[in-house]
Amino acid sequence: MKKQTHPETYRLVAFKDMSDETVFITRSCATSKDTLVVDGVEYPLVKLEISNTSHPFYTGKMKIVDTAGRVDQFYQRYKARKK
Length: 83
Description:
Layout: E1 11-17, E2 22-28, E3 34-38, E4 41-48, H1 56-59, H2 70-78
């Protein structure tokens, strides 16, 4: 393997899906100020709005995630074209 391929901050990070509280741990360079203790080990925490455990494509459930009224803004903007 080539040297200096991965950044120095490449480490185990906990990612938490905020819509269904699922936590998974993987290697990442993502920065975070928050931490989470999983099985007695403290990991940097990155919060996600949606992941494979809550995304409609993977779950088969239709669910609208409205971040700051974006869905409402979309419907307001394009409701005239609907007719």
